Every structure is written in structure tokens, then in C-alpha cells.
User: Fold this.
Amino acid sequence: MDARANAGRWILRLEDLDRPREVHGSATRILNTLQAFGFEWDGEVVRQSDREDQYADALQGLRDRDLTFECSCSRLQLAEEDRYPGTCREQPAAPAVQTATRLRVEPEQILFTDRIQGTYRQNVAAAVGDMILKRRDRVFAYVLAVVVDDAAQGITHVIRGADLLDNTPRQIYLQRLLGLPLPIYGHVPVLTEPDGGKLAKSRRSVRLDSVSAPAQLVAVFELLGLEPPAALSTASIAQAWGWAIAKWDIIRVPKRLALPIPG
Assistant:
């Protein structure tokens, strides 16, 4: 999900392509939570599930240039592989079964400077091999949809969680093939336990609560290096955002962020 400025407007994009795994009512709950925490957007919500024609056009353009191939390999068959081994590059190993569409990825070092994490590089061919652009169940892959949407919506800056940092070189590789502009990226650290474990799976994870939204927002501001005053926790949502926007400085965002060791 993305909410970003576009020509003076704020666009909210729901990345809902994986409909088989979508929990009923989750989109409504997400929108309600965003509103409760003071997020705003203009116009109708953009849903990726309504934009499949655009993804199909981009994929066809790659097919026409012989940059894709059909792959019959299942997840089970590839379970022991660190990267896709190129099994179906010449032709599907099992032509009679439903196939996925993969991008032919050639060896190339992708390097970019992240505004928070600094210099990052990845050889996409060595890291993941030929990427899936459309799954066997006919669902378009995130990597294709997101680069098409970022370009279509005029996205110039992307700020997101560092758990997507290793996905960014793959997007840049695809953006270059499609002749799309490259946004400036910044990856905010994911809050973890001291051992690096996911906070969401620990006892100290906290559910978002619209009743205590200002206090929870202020806690996040503190994690981002803004040093908010204690009194801000009892301010209104609008006041909290006004203070944070005035104080925002991406330079102060830490590269890593872990909770302190209990006790």
C-alpha cells in the first residue's frame, strides 16, 4: 500500500493483487486505521486489482522483445534452490502444465544509493535468477505491478520498510528494461527485538489503537529520531502531525532499530 504526492495530490494505492490470500474486510480496516491516524488522500483509492490491463501491456512488451519465458517449475520443485536455476529457459520442463512467466535476468551489478541505508548493490541474476512476472495462478507479481504503477503515478521518492531493500535492485533492473524513470529510495529500519527477531511475532508487539493514536504516533516519531516532547502525546492528531512535519529530517533516521533488552 502506498500513499504518495503526485502533482500536488495525495494518492492512496492498495496493492491487492494477491486476491486469493486477501482476508475479507482487510482493505476497509486498513483504510479506517489510516484515517484514524490522520492520513489523508485525494480522490478514489487506486487498487492494483483494477489495473491488470496495464501490467499485461508491460508484460507483452517484454515478451515481444524475447525477454521472458514460460516456466512449469513448481515451488516444491525449487524448494532446495537458493535461486532459480534456469530449468525452463529454453522451454518448459513440463509443457502440459500451467506455467508462470519469468523475466530473463542477465548478470549485472545493480547499485543505488539509499537515502537511509546508504550504498546498496546486488547482482540480481546471482541473487534470485530469472524473476517471476506472472505466477502460475495468473496473478501478476508485485515487482512488475509496482514499477508500472510508480511510473504511471509519477512517483519520484519511495520511503518504505527496509524489509523491501533487497527487492529494490530487482525493481531497478525491470525499470531499466521498461524504460521507466527510477525513483529515489529510502528504506526505514524495521523495528525488531534485540536478537533481530520480528517484533510482530514477539510479546512486545503492540496492536494499533485508534483511541490512543496520538500517543502511538509520538512513539513512532521518537523511533525516527525526532525527539518529540512528552506533551505531544496528549495533543490532537493534527497537532502531532504538524509538529512532526516541521521537525522531519531524514538524516536523523537510524539505519537499524531494535528494542532495548528487557530489564
Observations:
- The mean pLDDT is 91.
- The chain has three domains: 1-49, 51-188, 199-252.
- The helical segments are 26-36, 52-64, 124-127, 142-152, 168-178, 213-223, 237-247.
- The two ends are 36 Å apart (CA to CA).
